[in-house]
Structures are given as structure tokens and as C-alpha cells.
Amino acid sequence: MRPCLVFFASFAVFSLPAQTPKEGSFVISNFQFASGERLERLNLHYMTFGTPQRDAQGHVSNAVLILHGTGGSGKQFLNPVFADALFHDGQLLDSSKYFIILPDDIGHGGSSKPSDGLRAHFPHYGYADMVTAEYRLVTEGLHVNHLRLILGTSMGCMHSWIWGETQPEFMDALMPLACLPVPIAGRNRIWRKMVIDDIQKDPEWKNGDYQQQPHGLQAAIDLLIIAGSSPLQMQKAAPTPDAADAYLATQMKQRVAVNDANDLMYATASSRDYDPSQNLERIQAPVMWINSADDFINPPELGIAEREIKRVKNGRFVLLPITDETRGHGTHTVASVWKQYLQELLEKSQH
Predict the structure, then answer these.
(1) Domain residue ranges in the chain
(2) H or E element: which one contains 84?
């Protein structure tokens, strides 16, 4: 069967002056994963703003692909700290001028994921599978043959490096936010393995066939809270022992309510095949790569970014200093902190 595109009614999460987002589902039949496993029906949920425009050669000239992080979805970019700074009239990614694509990756949001019913029998996907699905959504589903920009945050940041290497002429510019273009190792791999082990080694997990969320999910979320934290912001939010205890209790309650153990375990494990370090020289598009100095997941003291950016022919690396505005790893979605570099990138890559 051919992949099909399904539209359905939607409501805007917040008000945009130009237009409201459209939601859709792109279905790929008999999708084969790199592991050799297959899924009879892979559903990819997405949102879009705007309308594709084509140049004289027939290339779409205004499409922007924005990729989310582990455990997130395209809807996270409707948060005012991101959308209000970028999508409104006159902003850098004015939704009346650009065709903005916000997909939910495999295992995330409204796309196919273990909690839909297959649980731990869901195919074991990796980043290569996710980027393949993103590409098919863009090209087959939305009929976009060129991207003005790929902007990726966290996991999406890592996906943007893969896009740049595997489809070097498909985009005009790349903006990776909050990642490193090397295999996930050291502390970064260790805390991820802890998340996976906390779930899998809990007897209540029952090989994925639990009837209620195992307690291992809470242990996994403990690690996620720390990994995504900013010491400065956390100290401000919890300046006393009682405030810190209350902060943790609130975070745990909120996160347990929206997470599934199998989904989280699969999403965390999906980074196992990530390694763009061998082919950075293949990237043709200008790259504006941004990390934050208070990022626990990508600590600047490793020196990896300064080393690897030398191999990217049109690349620039910016390390944001710690300020009252940075949010640790989550700085990637606080667009006001880094949007001046996006403006520089768009100007540099304009044809």
C-alpha cells in the first residue's frame, strides 16, 4: 500500500496573528526498521503553519523543519517561550511567510509508540529510523523537496546532524541546539542506561506487560529531572529545604501523569545508533550550533564541540554563558536567548 496523508480538525494551543496550525497524520505501510523489524502501519503525527512556496526551479523555498527532543513532541514548540519569539508577524520564522513543519517522531506524541498497544513488542527504533521517517513525511507526505532550515533541539539537534550528512543538498541551513555530534558515551550514556535499567529491572515491569505504571518509572524520572536541570534556576525555584521537597513532589506528580514506562524506555534507548562523527565533512549547508554552558547533558568542559566544529566547513559553534535567562539543557526552547544567532544564520544562508 502507498503511504497516505490524513488531515483532521484541530484547535490552536495559543493565538497566532497570522494563522492557526493544521494537524495531520502521515501513514507509512509496512515500515522496515534498521533492526529488521517491521510495523504494518507507522503513523506520524505532525502540525504545520503556512503554505509551501516554490521558486522558478520548482523547489520549495520556505519550508522549515523543527525537531523535538526525547520524550517531547511538535506541540512543545507552541509554548510561548518559543512560538511567541519566532512565529508571530515580523518574527524570524513568521508563520505567514514560512511553511513550518512540526513532526512527532516515532515513539512520541501522536505518532506510533509502544503504549498504543504493542508495548514491549513494538519495534526497537533508533535515530536512523526516526530520520528516515521524518524524511518520508517531508517528501512523500508533505511533498516538500527542499528545506530552508532544519532546527533541532536535543534529540532533534542530533537528528539535524544526521540530516546534514545523509541529505547534504536538501537544506539551506542547519541549527542544532543542545547536543554533540559524537556517540553518546561517558556520563551521558551512563544516566540513560540508568533510566532503562530502572524500568527493565523493576519486577513490576513484567517484560512490558504491566497493568499499571511500574515504580521504576519514578526512579527513571528522578534522573530526568536532574539531567534536564539548571543549578541556578533550580536554586531560585527551590531556595529552602521545604521548597525543594515540594518542587520534587510537584515535578514527579506532573511527569508520572504524562509518561509511560515503555515509551520512555524505548525513547531513551533509541540513541544507541547515533554517531555522526565519521561524516561531518559531508555537511554542505551553513551550520549554527548552539549549546549552553549550564547543560548537564552536554557539558562544555569536554571540549568536544570546539574540536568537532573544525570539521564542519561552513560551521560555527556558540557556547551560551550561564545567565538568569539560560535554563540548562532546556535553554534550547527559550528562543529569546539565541534567536540573534538564528537571524545571522538565515542571513548567511539566504540565496
Answers:
(1) 4-182+276-348, 186-270
(2) helix 80-86
